[in-house]
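Friendly challenge for the regulars: who can give me the structure tokens for this chain first? No prize, just bragging rights.
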Amino acid sequence: MNIIAETKPGKPAAIAGRVERRDVVDLLLKYNFIIIFFTICLIATLLSDNFLTFRNVSNLFQQAAVVGIVALGETFVILTGGIDLSVGSMTAFGGVLVSLLMAAGVDPLLAIAITLIVCMLAGAFMGSISAYAQVPSFVVTLAGLVTIRGLTYLMSDGVPIGNLPTAFGEFGSAMVPLFPGSDLVFPILGLIFVGFSIVGMLLLRFTVFGEHIYATGGNSEAARLSGVPTRRIVTAAFAISGLMCAIAGILLTARLRIGQPTAAQGLELDAMAGVVLGGTSLAGGRGGVIGTVFAVMLLQVVRNIFNLLGLGSFYQMTITGIIIIAAILLNRAIDQRSGQ
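First reply, four minutes later:
Bragging rights claimed.
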């Protein structure tokens, strides 16, 4: 009797142990990008004494700001199951447009507002074509990539736009104290990136709009039948992407102090790499801003390591490509595990 009494309780305990281990594994897989990020940071710290200095960390955020802000907008689009290939051209367009307006004597704040509205409407236009005309977003935004870049060259005659207000240029390289009276200063571009990241996370996780984004990407037809305005959600996601590109273009122009029509070439690849590396599924419906932020910072850390070690850009490109491939394979394995 004692043997039976001791054996029966043992089964639930064993099952509970297996379930608990599985939960731990699932948790590690879900947040793999955070684990990878801190692992790479640890390696970087061992390789270079300069990595963990406050100055180097603040530079990482400044360098990641433009790509990171664009990647935030790309995250919204990919979560709906779409893709935006025009973000690099849109960023350059925003930078040139705000430069032309200010060079023509328009008040800087008004020039910025006009640029934000124009880019947001351009993004919404591409999104509406994809959503209402049922044209794949890949095709629509590929056309947008070429068209918007061509328009940027036409507007600027292919030459940089200078004569920008001094205050605007100073804003791009401005540093602000971490807190009043502190000797530690942080780049304002990095703070803007952090601020938009927090807003994006809150928008996706704690609003009805965010729920609709995930529902649209998870199963568009089921979401539509459930009353989700999927077409408007897709259009809104592209509008957000256009808005983020405008902000990135304005910040890049402020940092360079000129409107450069050739700027942001290849930015769409960096942005999509950050989104995919951060765990957002290209099929839509899974992922989020937190993963994108960590992934963008991870790519910057990798490049920073090579710069600190004095290695060339060819190594950076190769290692970055390997990391992206590994991330895609890992995310696919996670998808298959979740489907079991």
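The two ends are 39 Å apart (CA to CA). The chain has one domain: 43-172+184-339. Your move, everyone else.
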